[in-house]
Amino acid sequence: MNKHLNELIELAKNDQAIDSYNPQLEAADKKVARVQKKIDAAQGELDELTTAIADNEEKVKGFEEQLTLLNEQLTSNAKKLKEISTEKEMKALSLEEDIAKEKMTFANEEIARLQGINETKTALLDEATEKVNTLTVDFDAINKEVSAEKAEIEKSKGELFVKREELSRNIEQKVLSFYEKIRIWAGNTAVVPVKKQACYGCYMKLNDKTYSEVIKGDEIVNCPHCGRILYIESVTEEA
Question: Alpha-carbon distance 216 to 159, whole Å?
Fold first, then answer.
């Protein structure tokens, strides 16, 4: 078989080995991302509850201030009562008191309602906090595991990259450039075997002349349909 073709086959297989690690790296990153997504969702729920509780507490504070003012108004009205001399003034003061008492009743009811809501939300807040804490522990464990896994993968890839540099140095520059140009669009199928007289890149059948040239292996042969570099596997040659 042509020397350059042998070199390209070995380089192509090395490149395939390098890229074969990419799905593993992606899977590892997805494993971490899934837990992070759960943490983000739990944290979002936690933040929402915290904000709702704070808003309700602010409303309670507002109603309490309103009660203080209404109490002051009723105290003031009690003093005015001694100074009233006409029935009209009495009715006006009585109406003010009734309105003030209605407002106080409403304010007290709202305070009780909001405090009840906050009791429920506080319980949910405790659950959400516990969930975030648990997920964070899980995340740290998974992240540690994934980091170790990725370190091993990167180590293996690094060794293959070193091998690639060695292989590339031994290949004639013109031949290497030819391979790299095909690899830009064909990826790891730049160099493919021929099986059953078909290119295993585009799966199109080769004519007898091209097939014969591939079998001989004297020159680098490209698929007439897709342009990939073709070769016959050793098992096929023996057969």
Answer: 33
Q: What are phi and psi of 57, to 5 degrees?
A: -65, -35
pLDDT, position 1 = 62
Q: Which residues pair with 191 in a beta bridge?
A: 229
Per-residue pLDDT tens digits for 74-108: 888 888 877 777 888 888 888 989 999 999 999 99
What pLDDT, on the 0 to 100 scale, is given for residue 190? 96
> pTM for this one?
0.69
Radius of gyration of the chain (CA): 40
How far does CA 40 lie from the centroid of its chain?
Answer: 10
Length of the chain: 239
Q: Which residues pair with 146 in a beta bridge?
A: none
Maximal C-alpha separation, the chain: 126
Q: Give the mean pLDDT of 155-184.
A: 95
| Distance (Å, whole) CA 35 – CA 140 | 10
The CATH 1.10.287.1490 domain(s) of the chain lie at 18-169
Average pLDDT estimate for 112-127: 96
- On whether the CB atoms of residues 204 and 198 are closer than 8 A, the answer is yes
Reported as a single tens digit per residue, the pLDDT across 202-219 is: 999 999 999 999 999 889
Nearest Cα to Cα of residue 162 among 25, 17, 27, 26: 17
Domain range 18-169, its CATH number among 1.20.1250.20, 3.40.50.620, 3.40.50.10490, 1.10.287.1490? 1.10.287.1490
